[in-house]
């Protein structure tokens, strides 16, 4: 089964998402350019050498995007709306060449009052690097289809 429906979640369950992603310089440069982020610490090695990190820093919104993507098969494959990300924290920098992994823990479940075919799932997600150091954390809430509903229900 790919993805979980609302009924498949249990408060307290933790999923270590199976894939990892090594972030290349090209990933970081392209994402930075696509999002019009002009902070040179993401794409100018000479500039970055003068910062406290002394090397290229991965664009933090790229880290959000990758960790979100890593979590999709386990927590949001059958979500149809993100309701919010809260308390995004970046306790450790991510650098070009780092490999990022993720894990999520189910915090809360509740039936939707306005959509009987869906429920609201809240998870805590952490992204961590190849050394096991947390690089990003947040709480995310999604509107998720119940089993038998949504575009995949008839397949």
How would you portray this structure in words?
The protein has helices at 25-34, 45-49, 60-76, and strands spanning 14-16, 21-22, 79-89, 99-111, 118-129, 134-145. The chain is elongated and about 55 Å long. 21% of the residues lie in helices and 34% in strands. By secondary structure, the protein is an alpha+beta fold. Strands 1, 2, 3, 4, 5 and 6 form a six-stranded antiparallel β-sheet that branches. The protein is built from three helices and six strands.
Entry keywords:
alpha+beta, elongated, 34% strand, 21% helix, 155 residues, Thiol Ester Dehydrase, Chain A, six-stranded antiparallel β-sheet
Topology:
Layout: E1 14-16, E2 21-22, H1 25-34, H2 45-49, H3 60-76, E3 79-89, E4 99-111, E5 118-129, E6 134-145
Anisotropy-based shape: elongated
The CATH architecture is: Roll
Tell me the strand percentage band.
25-35%
Order of helices and strands: EEHHHEEEE
Low-confidence stretches: none
Number of helices: 3
Largest sheet: 6 strands, antiparallel
Helicity level, as a percent range? 10-25%
Helix-strand category: alpha+beta
| N/C terminus separation | 13 Å
CATH superfamily placement: Hotdog Thioesterase
What's the total count of β strands? Answer: 6
Mean pLDDT across residues:
94
What CATH calls the topology is Thiol Ester Dehydrase, Chain A
Radius of gyration: 17 Å
Indicate how many domains the architecture comprises: 1
* Main CATH class: Alpha Beta
Pfam families: MC_hydratase
InterPro entries: HotDog_dom_sf, MC_hydratase, MCH/BMMD
GO molecular function: lyase activity
């Amino acid at each position: 089964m790919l993805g979980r429906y609302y009924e498949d979640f249990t408060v307290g369950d933790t999923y270590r998402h199976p894939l990892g992603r090594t972030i290349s310089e090209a990933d970081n440069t392209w994402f930075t350019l696509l999002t019009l982020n002009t902070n040179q610490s993401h794409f100018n090695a000479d500039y970055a050498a003068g910062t406290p990190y002394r090397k290229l820093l991965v664009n933090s919104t790229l880290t959000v995007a990758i960790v979100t993507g890593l979590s999709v098969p386990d927590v949001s494959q059958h979500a149809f709306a993100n309701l919010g990300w809260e308390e995004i924290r970046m306790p450790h920098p991510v650098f070009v060449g780092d490999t990022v992994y993720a894990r999520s823990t189910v915090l809360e479940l509740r039936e939707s009052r306005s959509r009987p075919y869906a429920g609201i799932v809240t998870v805590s997600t952490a992204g961590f690097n190849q050394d096991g150091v947390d690089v990003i954390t947040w709480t995310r809430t999604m509107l998720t289809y119940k089993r038998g509903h949504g575009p995949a229900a008839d397949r």
